[in-house]
Structure formats: C-alpha cells, structure tokens
Amino acid sequence: MALTDSDCPRLPSETAITIPLISIGEELPQIMLDLRSAGVYTWKTLVMIYDTTVSRDMITRIIKSITQRRTSSAKASGISLMKLESNISRIDLKTVLSTIDPKIVGSNYLVIASYYIVGILMEYAKSLQIAGINNQWMYIISDTNRHFQDIHVFENLLKEGDNVAFLYNSSFTTSVCAGGRKCHIKELLESFTRSIDQAITEEFNTASQVSEEEWEAIRPTKSERRDFLLKNMKIHLSKNGVCDNCTYWKISTGETWGVEYQAVGEKSSPKLHPVGVWRPSDGIEMTDVLFLHVSHGFRGKALPMVTFHNPPWQILTFNETGDITEYKGLILDIITELSKNLNFTFRLTAVDKSNTINSTTSPFDIDSELTTKVPNTLLDQLKNKTVALAACAVTVTEDLKSVVNFTKPIAILSYTFLVARPKELSRALLFISPFNFDTWLGLCAAIISMGPLLYFIHRSSPVYEYKGIPMKGGLASIQNCIWYMYGALLQQGGMHLPYADSARILVGAWWLVVLVMATTYCGNLVAFLTFPKIDIPITDLEQLIAHKDTVSWTFKEGGFLEKELKVSNEYRFKTILNGKSKHTSTDFKAVINSIREGKHAYIDWKIKLQFIMKEQFLKTSRCDFVLGLEEFFDEKLALMISPESPYLPKINDEIKKLHQVGLIEKWLKDYLPKKDRCWKNRHLIEVSNHTVNLDDMQGSFFVLLMGFVSALLLLLFEKLWYVKINKQPKKMIQPFVT
Ligand SMILES: *[C@@H]1O[C@H](CO)[C@@H](O)[C@H](O)[C@H]1NC(C)=O
Ligand SMILES: *[C@@H]1O[C@H](CO)[C@@H](O)[C@H](O)[C@H]1NC(C)=O
Ligand SMILES: *[C@@H]1O[C@H](CO)[C@@H](O)[C@H](O)[C@H]1NC(C)=O
Ligand SMILES: *[C@@H]1O[C@H](CO)[C@@H](O)[C@H](O)[C@H]1NC(C)=O
Ligand SMILES: *[C@@H]1O[C@H](CO)[C@@H](O)[C@H](O)[C@H]1NC(C)=O
Ligand SMILES: *[C@@H]1O[C@H](CO)[C@@H](O)[C@H](O)[C@H]1NC(C)=O
Ligand SMILES: *[C@@H]1O[C@H](CO)[C@@H](O)[C@H](O)[C@H]1NC(C)=O
Ligand SMILES: *[C@@H]1O[C@H](CO)[C@@H](O)[C@H](O)[C@H]1NC(C)=O
Asked: Which residues pair with 419 in a beta bridge?
C-alpha cells in the first residue's frame, strides 16, 4: 500500500495499491501519467496545443509526465508545443493551426483547452485536413464539471472517419467531499482490516473442516493470500471509498467510422461512446480502447455495397427473386479480405439485375466491355452515399475520375491479338532444302560444264597418240564424260579413268569438290529432318500490318481500346484503327473459324484471348491459335469509392499490401485458364524427339518416281526409234524386180 505524492507512477496494479495525494485542480499530470503507463495511448510523437486555462507550471508538469521515461513499457515521446493566447480570434486560430505540417510533427494531437475553444479547433482541424482517418486527436477539457459537461454538443462536429477522444472534468465540489492524507490512510487501513478479517474467517472455516495435515497441503500461499487481500481491498475501496471521490474524469470517444452508411432511409450521425473513467484512488479504468477505430477498424459495421455480374471480376448467382445467393470473383475476394482487415461486414446489392439474372457462370463469358459501361444508377448511389463502395472492377478513365474516386489499380490488363498458329510447312521438298536455289544452280552448271571440259582435256592430250593407246569408248564420247562427272558427284565413280595426268588432275579436283558438297548436304539434311519447318508467325503489330492483304482484323467497338487507338499518334495504331475490317460477321463462331484459317486476327484483352484459346482447345484438343507477343495499352481496373470518402487512403494501403504479398495476383490466376500445351513456346515443337516419317521422306520417293517415269518414257522413245531405224534399211535393200 502506497500513498505517494502527485506525479508518481503507480506500482503495478496486480500487486499493489497506490494512491497519489492530489490537490484538487492539479490532477492533469497524474492522469496523463496514468494513461501513459497503462498503455492507453502509445504515441511516439505528439503536438500539444494548449490555451491559458492551464498554468505554465501545470504545462511543465504535464510535459514531464508525458516525456519522462519512468517505466520501461511507456515509450518516450517527441512533443511539439503550440500555445493559444487567451483572447485569440478565430482568424488567428486558423493561422496558427495552418502552420502545422503533419509530415513533420506527426499525426497525434493533444489539445488542452477550454470548452469553447474545442469546438472551433475541431472545425478548423477538419477544414485544414489535419483531422482525418490517419490522425488522432485527444481533447482535454478541464473547465467542465459535474453540472456543466454537455459534451454531446461535439457530436455534431464529428465527421465520418475521425479519430477523436475527449477527456473531461466531471468533478464537483461540495462540503461532503473529503480528501487528504488522513482520509486516505484511514480508508486504506479500514479496507485492509476488513479484508484481513474476511480472509481469516474464510481460512478458519476451511481449516475447521479438514485435518491439520490436509490444511497444511491446501492452505493458501503467501502470494495467494496477497492477491486475495488486494482484490477485496479494491472492491471495498471502489464501493465505499469517499476520499477524493469528488474528483472524477470521464473519457469518451467518437464512434464515427461507417455510421454514414448505416440505417437505410435516415442518416445517423456519429455518437460519443464512453470508454473509461479516472479517479485518484483507482487510477484509469478503461471499458474500451481509447481510439475505437484505430484498434478495431469499422468495429464490425455492415457497409452497403453495390455490384453487378461481370466475370471473372464479380461472379454472382441469383435465386428466382433476384437476390444474390452466392458471390465470388477477384473483386469480391478482395472485398472479403478488406472486410477482415478493416473489421467490417458488407451487404451486397446488384444493379441492373435484368441482364444478369440469367447469367451463366461459365468462365468463358468474360467481357472486356462491361468494365467501361458503368450503370448510371450505380454512380448515383455512390454520389449520394447510399453505398460505401462499388464492389466492381471498373476501367479507370478521366471521365469517371471527375465524378467518383478510384482506389489503386486492382489489375492492369494489356491488349494483344489472336492469330492462327503458324502452320508446319509441307516436307515434300525437304531433300532440296539443305541448299538454297543459287547453290543448286551452281551445282547443275558445274556438272554440265565439267563434262565437256573433261572431254576437251581428255581429247587434247597427246599422251594416247604417243603411247599408242586407242582412243575409243570410255571418256572419248562427250556424254560419257557428263555421266562420269554425275556419277562422281554421287560418289559412285565410273568404269573409266583418264590415262593422261592432265585429265586426272581435273577429275581429282572434282572429287574434292564432291566430297565437300556431299558432306555439307548430309549434315544439313539431318538438321532439317530434326527441326520442323514452321511458317513465319505474326508476332507484333508491324507484322500484322505487313500482312494486311491476307489478314484482316477486328476489335470490339466503343471500348477502351478504340478510345486509346483514336487518341494515339503512332502510325501503327492509326493503321490498326483505320484498317479494321468493316464487314465482320456478328457470329463469333465464324470469326473464330476465319482466325483458324489464318485470314483474321482478333484484338482484345490478353486474358480474354486466353479464355478463347482454352475453350477452343477443350473443343478440338488442337492448338490452332497463338497470341501476339506484343502487348499494348494497359487498361487499369480499380474499385470505385464515393467522392470525398475518408477511407480511400486506408483502402489503398490495404490493396497495396495485398499486391505486395501477391494475393491479388494469385486470386486472378485462379480465375484464369490453366496452362495447357497450347501455351508452349511456338518454336520448340517436337525438337528433342522426332522420328523420321513418311512425310519427311516423300520427296525422295517422288524423285524415284520421276526417275522411273522418265526412264520409262525414254525406253518408249528408244523402242520407237529402234522400230523406225529397223524399217528404213529393209526398204532400202528391197530386191529390184523387173
Ligand atoms: C475539475 O473540476 C473541479 C470542480 O469544478 C475543479 O475544482 C477542478 O479544478 C477541475 N480540475 C481542473 C484540472 O481544472
Ligand atoms: C463518493 O462517496 C459518497 C459516499 O460513499 C457517495 O455517496 C458518492 O456517490 C461518491 N461519489 C462518487 C462520484 O462516486
Ligand atoms: C472488430 O470489431 C469488434 C466490435 O468492436 C471487436 O470486438 C473486434 O475485436 C474487432 N476485431 C478486430 C480484429 O479488430
Ligand atoms: C432468395 O434469397 C433471398 C435472400 O437470401 C431470400 O430472402 C428469398 O426468399 C430467396 N428466394 C427464393 C425464391 O428462394
Ligand atoms: C432467362 O431464362 C429463361 C429460361 O432459360 C427465359 O425464359 C427468360 O426469358 C430469361 N430471362 C431473361 C431476362 O433473359
Ligand atoms: C441515391 O440514388 C439512388 C439512385 O439514383 C436512389 O435510388 C436513392 O433514392 C438515392 N438516395 C438518396 C438518399 O438520395
Ligand atoms: C476524388 O474525386 C474528386 C472529384 O470527384 C477529386 O477532386 C479528388 O481529387 C479525388 N481525390 C483523390 C484522392 O483522388
Ligand atoms: C519419343 O516419343 C515417343 C512417342 O511419341 C515416346 O514414346 C517416347 O517416350 C519419346 N522419347 C523421349 C525421349 O521423349
């Protein structure tokens, strides 16, 4: 039990009773100290604004109790001081307040002022935007008392989103008010003796019912006894204590968050909520936290929200009467998470039920237009604050920005185009592909010219004449030479070899050429067999424009894309806008088919195109489509909030956090089509594992067929020729008959 001077920290309340001896009218430093050591406020910095109702001496003591580091749990504070003169005018007050820069001095304010100044201060703080969702204001009103404490006047000045607490004097002075050291000592000792008495009676009662050994085992320990005494003393003091009980302060906090959206039909206004009391003997007794919303967000309030069906952002299911029975989708996932973090619940209503009531929940229904077509009723409801938030993804546009406020973007979507997957080219002419046309031409020229050259060198050589070798057959005829060179090219050799060195050198050189040619050809052919030959794909807008003679394109009219294209100055975007195919079928199936045939390209959100690809893949189990690699125009989707809503920064912070931990990305992924084999890189198909098949070999079979046919034709020709030759001599040697 301790009786201390004023401004001393109390001993831990679970082990001791501390009663500071306070002279009436000087209780403020002790209250601040008690608040701080009880951890009711945990400010690190604060701005203290005070007027002349407190003396200089008192201010010094208050500052001391706020700043002095006495117990380890209480944090030290940085304080900025502002003094208001006694007869300050309203204009001067505003000027003084406007010098506050919340970035420098922090966002916590402690005001010690008279009843009349507080109202004016609240008004100006609001208009200077230093009182809001991120600021905490505590007003200490000392010139009130039990009979003059109409604190509810300030309720009218409370605004949505404020964090304001009032600590006010509720003391009274009558002749029955006792106080001072003697009174407290008497009261303390009385309560102590009563508690001891109670303890002894109880212990005797218990001990008399059990044996001595048992009592030894179950009797209370010293600390148990202390706790019992302390508890009873406190109960007694709070019930019967009269010393200094005329000094009495109350704490009330404004319950402001979300009240504007309560009670459909009539607007309810913020209320003051009592959260604690202070008495010298008990110290601070809190029934709730000091700043309700800082610790508990919206305190479980139900906020009305409006939405409409638009997968994958909002996916709603309705029952026959048109009430929402089930909801999911990216936006509603985010709202659910927000409601957990900010401690609110929500009531969803749907606008525009007519077109959504029959909506299927097929994931392929995604429509890139709906985010730009916001129903007017929804905007009206946001503007007249019947709803707190529009729980729908909306494209951020300048037009809408002037009417409502947007949160940070939820998703950023880019546009690209869908074209037919480049076809694999026919492999019939595979055997020609190792060399290009020039090489083949050079090769042919070489074969044809080398024959006569060999013939010429062979004939001109005098070796045969000198050695007496007959020059007949073999290389002595020009077409034999050509055949020989051809045979050598295919590494088949020939029956004859020139005898002369000159011709042999030529043949040797030819063999060398043949060696290089053949090796190169073989190597290249293997490579061509392994890698399939793919058509050149359309990957960006330039290529699409370059193909405009064969490929037409479309996009949805009147959407974000068209607007962006119209305002863009870039040549390619202008071309895309002007070159849009005029006569497109409204039947989407026909559009898909013409894309598949490679005659058409469709421009839309990348995710929408992915849905189309997935749908077609599920239908045909072929990958007929591919997306353009270029992505253009970022479309930002965000939530809409009513203008002037104080909660925008708070919601933005939460959304930022969700982005940072990757939750939004993960949720979006869950609603998008899963990866399948059509997502594979377009260039690497079957590379590692290709068995040579008939397709690859068909070319060589064609050559064989052609050889066979030409041989057959030649045979026919030879036959005919032979018949003709045979007939002529018969005629010539006809016997002459006279
Ligand atoms: C609180 O009110 C009582 C009664 O009016 C008064 O005596 C006391 O000085 C007041 N306290 C302060 C700090 O002004
Ligand atoms: C102070 O004590 C007296 C006597 O017990 C009691 O009548 C009075 O209501 C108490 N005042 C307060 C503010 O508790
Ligand atoms: C939400 O608000 C209720 C009502 O004030 C409160 O009891 C609860 O602790 C709060 N929850 C959180 C997580 O702050
Ligand atoms: C539709 O749901 C609402 C709200 O849950 C309910 O009041 C109503 O009875 C339901 N209607 C039908 C036809 O089930
Ligand atoms: C909804 O679907 C039902 C049957 O499928 C049809 O009779 C009704 O007209 C549709 N309603 C709307 C608003 O499209
Ligand atoms: C707000 O606007 C909606 C839609 O126009 C209307 O139905 C509602 O009655 C309005 N509420 C108020 C309080 O003006
Ligand atoms: C909210 O919208 C209003 C116009 O409706 C605009 O003046 C204001 O700057 C916006 N606030 C924010 C934080 O964007
Ligand atoms: C190659 O393809 C065949 C059939 O397409 C398959 O059975 C085999 O496992 C594949 N081998 C490798 C190494 O991928």
From this structure: 626
